[in-house]
Design a protein that fits this description.
With 126 residues, this protein is an alpha+beta fold. It has 5 helices and 6 strands. The longest helix has 12 residues. It is globular and about 45 Å long.
Length: 126
Amino acid sequence: MSAKELADEIRSGIQFYGWFEDGFLLGIAGIQNVDSLDLIRHCYVRTNHQGRGIGGALLRHLLTLAHSSVILVGTWEDATWAVQFYERHGFTLVLRDEKNKLLQAYWNIPRRQIETSVVLKHRLTD
């Protein structure tokens, strides 16, 4: 993501949080409150640092910041590792019809990306 794209994402309301070790950014994740729910945005960990719990720690932190009881995340359907990551953290895949409606309502992405993406949902309990 370029600096301009990052600035645009921040202006759109995404709050980013990072995981640093020895002054190096190893992971980043964002959350965006939209209407009555929250979106997890841009959850990434450097490849050579994956599997150490960094992504899970960032995700758990974001869940503590959620303004709503419903949290959504979108990812590529073929990114099975990402889908499995979110499922391990309590997210469930939504059905295709609901996925299409959610992607059109809360994401600004091309139709082809809608066709090749999935949405996972997490409900927080009180």
